[in-house]
Amino acid sequence: MSSIVAIKSIELEKTQWIDVFILWIVGVFAAMQFAKFSVSYDLLLTAYDVGASSIGALLSIVGFIGLLFGVVAGVLSGYLGYQKVLIGSLVIGGGLSFIQSVLPSYSVLLITRIIEGISHLGIVVAAPTLMLRSAAKQHYSLVMGLWGTFLVWLLLLLGG
């Protein structure tokens, strides 16, 4: 077994459903973090004197970060600890959202979106892992199925 990713295997007899649900809600909020610029696209076009492709870059950069660094995030999360990564990512993402809410300059907004992509990646790597750690083995499929619905719930909440 790798010394970098030594994951303790503790089988629970009973699923900690409250923990699973809270972590799932974290996923819904992470999806909101991912999608907030698509909802406010027209307002951002009005607020910033840049072209549509520049606002599109703000929209897509979070997903692009996930594509580039997904495997790295998985390895680092295992090494640093999933709880630490999740909590750090939530704090960083919340702080960045606050900065973005005051409509800083475009360059500052772009930098915060790049960092937000990293925090989003930390959430979507750590939360499902912690959900599995909170579940009894017989509920693994159900818990991962629940995790897979977080984006659907975001679309329902946004009316899409």
UniProtKB/TrEMBL annotation:
Recorded superkingdom: Bacteria
Cited InterPro entries: MFS (IPR011701), MFS_dom (IPR020846), MFS_trans_sf (IPR036259)
Residues passing through the membrane, by range: 17-35, 55-78, 85-103, 109-132, 139-158
Signal sequence extent: none
Occurrences of domain Major facilitator superfamily (MFS) profile (ranges): 19-160
Keywords: Cell membrane, Membrane, Transmembrane, Transmembrane helix, Transport
Pfam families: MFS_1 (PF07690)
Protein's cellular compartments: Cell membrane
Membrane topology category: Multi-pass membrane protein
SUPFAM superfamilies reported for this sequence: MFS general substrate transporter
PANTHER family membership: BLL2771 PROTEIN
Similarity section: Belongs to the major facilitator superfamily.
Name of the protein: Major facilitator superfamily (MFS) profile domain-containing protein
Species name: Marinomonas rhodophyticola
Phylogenetic classification of the source organism: Bacteria, Pseudomonadati, Pseudomonadota, Gammaproteobacteria, Oceanospirillales
